[in-house]
């Protein structure tokens, strides 16, 4: 089992579906290993709250992985440059859309990384969303005073020295795994209802075929290759069906369901662990 410190570490990015609130439950199920592999790293809460010797952290979003590599190798300059955008003058709707346009127009990796943090902290609910043309399109968030996460950036920069960051498909990440590693998967969640399943998945993205492929890979990797795989997802009839053969743990997680974030709903989630019998 991986061990956390007494005090949990927060990610420097706001992230929809982040695993900060589930760290204790996830750690209780993660087996001991030399390396933790995350094909869907997101904001990195599991990475930041485990103590493995090495990490392979992957995401399909190149902006996210470029940002992480910059924080790993150029943290001092990055923190200085990013902090300049966290002033009252930049917490303005018109200025926000100017900065969003600059981000979308830029081809400079470092510049995009600076803008990415600004957009993440000033945009609506910390969402990360792109349109069909690949342009970031999250609206202004209207926060009183967006927080600049200097402490969190410094911790990430320190711990990232143990990590390799990649931008590949989850299939390629699984293919790189070797015995002595454990894999934690936090994919885009399957819809809760059949109606949501049709509406959410008709336009592409992480499809039901992707969910099935991931479940099959996790089963084969855990049972046949003897590399433990832990997967988190919504607890539904669909996910329980595709995760057959795994040791399943049901959780109740609070989720915001109203625009102002004042109303919470308990949502059933599932942890599915595949390992050799």
Question: Could you walk me through the main structural features you see in this protein, from its secondary elements to its overall organization?
Answer:
This is Site-specific DNA-methyltransferase (adenine-specific). InterPro entries: Ade_MeTrfase_dom_2 (IPR023095), DNA_methylase_N6_adenine_CS (IPR002052), M_m6A_EcoRV (IPR012263), MeTrfase_D12 (IPR012327), SAM-dependent_MTases_sf (IPR029063). Keywords: Methyltransferase, S-adenosyl-L-methionine, Transferase. This protein is α/β, with parallel strands linked by helices and 277 residues long. The chain folds into 2 domains: 20-60 and 168-274, Rossmann fold; 66-151, Adenine-specific Methyltransferase, domain 2 (Orthogonal Bundle). The chain is built from 11 helices and 7 strands. The protein has helices at 23-29, 45-48, 62-73, 75-83, 93-105, 109-122, 150-159, 170-176, 194-201, 208-223, 237-242, and strands at residues 35-38, 54-58, 163-166, 181-185, 229-234, 247-256, 264-274. The protein has a 7-stranded mixed beta sheet with strand order 3-2-1-4-5-7-6, sandwiched between helices. A hairpin with a 7-residue loop joins strand 6 and strand 7 (264-274).
